What we know:
- By secondary structure, the chain is an alpha+beta fold.
- Helices cover 23% and strands 29% of the residues.
- The chain has two domains: 1-135, CATH 2.40.50.100; 152-357, Chloramphenicol Acetyltransferase (2-Layer Sandwich).
- The strands form four sheets. Strands 9-16-15-14-12-13 form a six-stranded mixed sheet, sandwiched between helices.
Amino acid sequence: MLVDVRMPDLSTTDEDIVVVRWLVQVGQRVERGRPLLEIRTDKATMEVESFATGVLREVLVGPEGEVEAGQVIARVEAECAAPASPAAPAAPAAREAPAPRASSSDGPARSAPAARVGMFARNRQQAARQAEAPCAAAPADLAAEAAPLSATQRIVARRMQQSKQTAPHFYLMTSANAEPMVACRSAAGPEGAAWDAFLIYAAARAMKRFPRMAARFENDRLVCPGTDAIGVAVDLEGDLLVMPVAGAAGKTPLEISREIRQLVDRARSGDGEARRLHTAVMTVTNLGACNVELFVPIINPPEASVLAAGKVLPQVVAVDGKVAIQRRIGLTLAADHRVVNGKYAADFLGAIVDELETL
């Protein structure tokens, strides 16, 4: 018989759930208690197990699809009778969980859920979803314009709010001679190298000299993230994603540029792994293509800094005592004052400029 597979009500999060990928394809056999699909929340990526043995007959939510607790996401043709999925948000799972004991604080004992899918389930609060809906009393034009955010947009919104509320930002601004970058791009031929690739390269090499910039503040301590990846912010159809480039200090800007393009292509094609939230030591963000000369960025937590770049523009400068026209790029470094002070961050920014000007 066909059995509905419902998204479990995860006890580990109250946030949005996004399907990353299905580990079993339609028509393939599934085993009770074996991983069926991979999901992502703003906190972690985890697997959901099958509660029945049989054949996966239908998948109702594809990769990057957003789901709610209790929603039917697939149907399995079970080999034998299996516990029916409850209509409530709690989902079926691999084996039954014992009913909790009653206590003076808990009141009467509750019956256990029918089963669990790799983690215990609980009722999901509806307040967040209600808050997202347009206010019934709002003017008609305002309600008509209201549109829900994607799961990625909501994660970014929460992270940016958290960053501004908890990380004491300070900002350092300068500019760098962009002529070496322009020359490298021209030498690379038609393929060229993305401007972001030069920024990632310079930041990664500068961080070798200033390793404290890679640390993050946690529980009154500085913690090493265990990676050297520099992330680059990418706008993908309205979703802001960060593509990590590991080992950038040992790569050429052209190699970094190719890697960025490959990551973007994978994310655009719906590759869940490419769209996952990856750990990086800092992020590079560039609005030069949008005709922005200089801007102030927000740190992407738990990172301790972010480098913002503007448009490469010709400027009048003094070179060897003579007036010259030189293409330059504006840079802004935002740093977390809990991790580094102004002098250390300024020296780091100066090292980035040095790397850009000596390509």
